[in-house]
Design brief:
By secondary structure, the protein is of the alpha+beta class. The protein is built from two helices and eight strands, in the order ααββββββββ. Strand 5 and strand 6 form a beta hairpin.
């Protein structure tokens, strides 16, 4: 038993909003000035020019200013917001001791909206008003992590609440880390 599947393809060409050749339009307008022009040809040229003049009015409904549900299909995407206006996010924090025995706080750079240079980190002792910092933040050598030397602020076997402040004074949500 064999089955036959019929497939149909529909091609749609969008021509609304495409202007006719401006030189041809100018030629048609100049031809209308000729007093010896055949009346049938004059009527045809006038009808074509009238159609060209009516087209922008129909396309006017598709303008960017129109209140179209779902937005404008042909519009370019809006410009991206300036990352310096975002609130920072502390992602994947961990502490690692460097060769000089200083604790270094690391955080993921991607999607953190932490603006460098200028952002700082503050460490707060949980259930206390005692805090350490602000410490300057910078990228590590790979550029994928953000780091801060938190010597004296994060001893071994302790917990801290981490907040990052961007230069625009937006502060991240607190994140607790223990080491």
């Amino acid at each position: 038993m064999s089955k036959h599947i019929a497939t149909s393809v529909i091609a749609l060409t969008l021509t609304i909003g495409c202007d006719a050749d401006p030189e041809a339009r100018a030629h048609d307008i100049a031809a209308l000035a000729d007093d010896d022009l055949d009346p049938e040809i004059r009527a045809q040229i006038e009808a074509e020019l009238a159609d060209d003049d009516a087209r922008p009015e129909a396309v006017g409904d598709l303008s960017d200013d129109a209140a179209t549900p779902g937005g404008c299909f042909f519009c370019p995407p809006p410009p991206a917001n300036d990352p310096s206006t975002y609130t920072p996010v502390v992602l994947g924090p961990y502490v690692q001791v460097n060769a000089q025995s200083n604790p270094i706080l690391y955080m993921q750079a991607a999607s953190s909206f932490i603006v460098l240079p200028g952002a700082t980190v503050r460490l707060q002792v949980p259930n206390s008003v005692q805090s350490y910092g602000p410490y300057a933040l910078s990228y590590d050598v790979s550029g994928t992590q953000i780091r801060a030397n938190v010597s004296g602020g994060f001893p071994n076997n302790s917990c801290r609440i981490i907040t990052v402040t961007n230069p625009n004074n937006h502060v991240s949500s607190p994140v607790q880390l223990c080491r």
